[in-house]
Structures are given as C-alpha cells and as structure tokens.
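Lab meeting, item 3. Inverse folding demo.
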C-alpha cells in the first residue's frame, strides 16, 4: 500500500517540474560564447550576465541532484 503524500509535497513537485521545463528553454552556449559573455560582463553588461547564468542552470540542477 502506497503512503499518501501531503499536498505541499505534491505542490513542490509541480513547481519543480515547471522550473525544470522552463530552464530547458534556455540554450546551452559553447566555450567561445562563454568567453564573449565574460568579456561583456567585465564591462558591466547585465544582459550578458543573465544569459550566462541562464545557460548554466541545467548544470546547477545536475550538481544539486548529487547532494539529495
């Protein structure tokens, strides 16, 4: 017999699923693009900073899963 899960756990799973689907829409970047963005970030380019962060969110999730 399966244990009933609390509603808040189900809600958290739904939110996580939505987040994972959303970050898949951000394109991965290659090393050349990463270096280009880094140069722009040094010049205080906020959009370059955001693009670099978004492109690495899948990596963050991969690392976080190792510590579950």
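The presenter then showed the designed sequence:
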């Amino acid at each position: 017999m399966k244990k009933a899960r609390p509603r808040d756990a189900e809600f958290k799973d739904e939110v996580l699923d939505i987040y994972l689907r959303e970050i898949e829409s951000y394109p991965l970047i290659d090393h050349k693009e990463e270096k280009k963005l880094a140069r722009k970030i040094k010049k205080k380019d906020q959009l370059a900073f955001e693009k670099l962060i978004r492109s690495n969110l899948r990596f963050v999730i991969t690392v976080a899963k190792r510590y579950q």
